[in-house]
Amino acid sequence: MWREIVFWLCAAGSVITGVAVFRVDSMARATFALLASFLFAAGTVLLVDLTYLGVLVILMMIMEMVIMVVFMLMYMMNPAGLMPMTMVHNQKGSLAIAIGTFAVLATGIYLIDWPTSSAPQPEDPTMALGEALMGPKMLMMIVLGLALFATIVATVVLATHRGRYDRYGDRLDRDRPDDPVRGGVGR
Amino acid sequence: MVETTAWGVLLLPVILGLFAVGAAAFDATLAARAAGVAAPRSAALAPLRSAAGLLVQQRRRTLAADTLLWRAAGMVLLVAAVLASLVTPLGQWAVGDLSAGVVWFNAMEIVAWAAVWLAGWGANSAFGLVGGYRFVAQGLAYELPHMFVLTTAALGAGSLRVADIVAAQQDLWFVVWMPVAFAVYLLSVLAMAFAGPFNHAVSSDVAGGVLAELSGVDRLVFVAGRWVLLVSGAAMAVPLFLGGGSGPLLPDWLWTLVKTALVLAALVWAGRRVPTIRMERFEEISWMVLIPATLLQALFVSLVVI
Amino acid sequence: MDGMQLAGGVPMAGRADDRDGLTLDQLHVPLGPLLPLWPPGLVVRTKLQGDVIQQAAVEVLGIGDARGDAFWLRPGRPLKARWLDASAALLAIAGWADAAAVARRLRDQVLTGTPQAEIAGPIRRWGRQVRRSRTLPWLLTGVGQVPDKPSTPRALAGDALTRLYRWVDSLADPKTSVAPPDVADGTPWAVDVLPSVLEGCELATARLIVASLDLDTDMLTVCEAHHG
């Protein structure tokens, strides 16, 4: 019973704060409304006993949104919402897409014959979910994760404005790097 | 072996509050002793006196402030600081014994990132905003080593459940064979509570940073949240590295309290010994020294476990 | 363009190129004239991008009403007390409240005429504590490095750390206990050089730099009075 109440609270909260993202003027408020929406979504994950995943969603989303708000303020006009503006572009088109997607998903929920199981709940639902999703391809997915991470690092290295030749000179012979601000390692 | 108690929900904030007041009093006493005040004992009451003053103080207003986010900051910080201790066992009782307790603790302390940034943002003041951004930079510096340290303790026990981590230390406390992890953990606790040398977000060179415009009840709630966060961090050091409630003679709940008090006192004392560490210097140390050090520690622990 | 629209009565920030080749909002933030641990009357008008000072203009308020009177030039104000005062300000801004509190206490004792024999020990102990700190050099090295020219006053050469160590070492030196107050003060030179030292710094170091230069705005009024 309480699970259902909590679920509906989370669902409603998630939708309401999701709508708020587009109703507020301020980038800061929009970002934190989005964060609240994600946290409500994490609540529903916690409800199905996927503790690790639910807590991880909370952890990652807070981190992500705090970093995102920095970029939102940096690149978007009117960061503080001190002047009236709207977050909505292409209103008709996006409305059509949103309603269409919702309709497809909702009918899907009612049409699919969801399987029921009388098997006891696994001891570690997160592990069981992972194995059900990945199965024998787990090792490949782990390697793929590493490759993705390496790609991110490589992209940052390639895109960096100042490389080691700017810092240590063309012959890489400077003792201390030539940085606009001195770092902490004291080289 | 850790049982969850529902009434602990009521007791937990009280214990955390008492520890927070005690830590603030200890801090004030140390400050008074350094300043050569004749009666350091009365200085211990200074935090309570200033809390009472803040309660009756009228709120300061700033131009075009984002009041909603600004007020939310303190509440969010305080609530998250209390929730972080939800999984910390007191002896053999814990309010919630989550299977991913360590991750929960980490998630709640990350809330401080949002809270401090919001407090800096809401006031619409340049100094507050600089303080808020400093804390985000500080977060990026301390969080990765901190996560690796938490992972190391979990690795040693083979579980993310705090009770299992305590149980794994029956024979040997983790602090003995993970000293690097313990040291980095203490550093990052100071950093996440922006206390001691890591108070760059609220330091005097930007007129108090995120605290610059906070006044009245808002300030009281925010500062209280900060002390409670420090207490939560210190308390978590006990089950992660100091063997939880294990010890001779005394009951285990008392041992937990004693160890927490010792860790907390050490943190407050050490924090006063060192000047404020600026982010442009700490960032490099963190990424060039602390991350490799914690990774090596994690590698060592995994090899031992295997 | 943005100057026309007012948000809460404040014009929106304009933009300019920054140090790293981005075009960012420019914020005008004045530091001073009245701040804790700040030379009274000094105003640094900064143009900030992020928390990097792109441009700084320095002015000193109240020079016009020169009375030719300076706190540190009055009798019974030994140089020792001034050094302790300057060290206390720098240490406090560097965030070492306890060492700063000790320095302030010692300064007050010097000013109230505590005998030399009684105070030399505590000053030496405090100096040893400051010199022993390993974090302090790590944090202050390279902060506020002034250009090394013949015109640079010897007392101000180097960076914030060398200046602090110079005060601490002179305090421990028994010969300085009788040194008279110094009229040949570095303040006019420091005020001239301050904008160029501040440019490109982060806001975090701006106040450290000002504190490390030991500006005494009273001295400026004295110089003004001397030169007519």
Automatic annotation (TrEMBL), chain A:
According to its record, how does it sit in the membrane?
A: Multi-pass membrane protein
Annotated catalysed reactions = a quinone + NADH + 5 H(+)(in) = a quinol + NAD(+) + 4 H(+)(out)
UniProt keywords (A-Z) are: Cell membrane, Membrane, NAD, Quinone, Transmembrane, Transmembrane helix
Membrane-crossing ranges are 6-24, 31-48, 54-75, 95-112, 138-159
Q: Recorded E.C. number(s)? A: 7.1.1.-
Location comes to: Cell membrane
**Matching Gene3D superfamilies, A to Z?**
NADH-ubiquinone/plastoquinone oxidoreductase chain 6, subunit NuoJ
Name the family.
Belongs to the complex I subunit 6 family.
Per its database record, what is this protein's job? NDH-1 shuttles electrons from NADH, via FMN and iron-sulfur (Fe-S) centers, to quinones in the respiratory chain. Couples the redox reaction to proton translocation (for every two electrons transferred, four hydrogen ions are translocated across the cytoplasmic membrane), and thus conserves the redox energy in a proton gradient.
Under what name is this protein listed? NADH-quinone oxidoreductase subunit J
TrEMBL record, chain B:
- Superkingdom of the source species: Bacteria
Main localization is: membrane
> Subcellular location, in the record's words?
Cell membrane; Membrane
Q: How does it sit in the membrane?
A: Multi-pass membrane protein
* Keyword check for Transmembrane helix: yes
Q: From the record, give the transmembrane residue ranges.
A: 6-26, 68-90, 110-136, 174-199, 220-241, 253-272, 284-305
Classification via Pfam families: NADHdh
Q: Which UniProt keywords apply?
A: Membrane, NAD, Transmembrane, Transmembrane helix
Similarity field: Belongs to the complex I subunit 1 family.
What protein does this entry describe?
NADH-quinone oxidoreductase subunit H
